[in-house]
Amino acid sequence: MNQPLSIAIVGATGSIGEALVGVLDERDFPVKELHLLASDESAGQSLSFRDRQVRVRSLEGFDFARVQLVFFAAGAEVTREHVALASAAGCSVIDLSAGLSLAQAPCVMPEDGQRVMATLKAPFVLSSPTPSAVALALVLQALRPLLLPRQVVVTAMLAVSALGRSGVQELARQTTELLNGRPLEPRALDRQIAFNVLAQVGAANAQGHAQLEERLVQELQMLGNDPQLKVAVTCAVVPVFFGDSLAVSLQADAPVDLAAVVRSLEQAQGIELAESGDYPTVVGDAVGQDSIHVGRLRCGISDPTQLNLWIASDNVRKGAALNAVQIAELLIKHYL
Which residues span the domain enclosing 180? Predict the structure, then answer.
C-alpha cells in the first residue's frame, strides 16, 4: 500500500461508524491520523483504536483539508450537506448513507471496484452499496459464469439496525415494555416492531415503492453492469437487532444446473454455503462474520429455469463497514 492516510469518519458514534473503526483496526489499515466526527450531542465520547482512546469531535467546522479520505456513515442529509466541502478540500469520499445519487457517487464492490474506479479521477466520490445489494451482488457475481439472470425477485427482511441506532433502541424498548406488561407507545417508528413485521421501510412514492427499494434495484443494475436487469424488491423490517435475511428467486435464461451452482458457490470467495438440507440464520451464522451465508438452494417447483435461495449476512459489519474499508484499500493501493 501507499503511505498512510489521514482519515475522517463522519457518524463515528453510530453502529456503522463504530464498526468502521473496528475494521480499520483489525485489517491494519495504514492510518496516519484518525478523526472521529459526529453531532454536537455525541462530541466528547471516545472510541478505542489501536490501544488508545480517540476522542469524538463535532463535525461542524471540521477542516476536511486535514484528511485525504472520509467515510460518511451518518444520515443522508448529513452527507449531502458536507460532501461538497470534503471534495473541495481534495478528500476522496466513501458514502455509506445512500445520500448521494449513483450518478454523483457510483457504487462499487471491492471484488470489481477497479472497473469503475479506472473511469474516475481523484478526488473520488464513491458509494458503498446498501447491505442487501452487497450480499446479493456477491452471490450474483459467483453465479454469472453459469447463468444469465433475466429477472431477480428479492424479499429483504432487514434488521432494525438498518434504521440506525435509534432502530435498535426502539426494538429494545418496545420489547421490554411488552414483556413487562406495560402499554406500548411507538416513538422512532410509526407502529409496533417488537414481535411484528413491518412491510415497508420509509415512505413510499406514488407507485408504492420505498426509496430503499428503488436504490437497491439501481445498485444491482450498476454492480452487475446490466442496466436492463429486471429486479423486483420488497424490503421489510423484522424484529432482529443485527443481520439481514434475503429470500431470492432468480429467473435464468436456461434450465439451472443445480450441481454446478453448488460448486460455484462453494468455491466463491466471501461466500459460505450451508450443507445440503441446512440453512443459515443471522443469529447463528452471519452476525460478526465477514462472509455472506447462503442456503436453501433449489430449482423452481414447476420451472427448471428458476433458482431459489436464502441469504443471511451481517448488515453492519459485512454489508457496510467491511465493504467500505475494502473499497478504501483499493483506493490507497492503486489510486491515492
Answer: 133-315
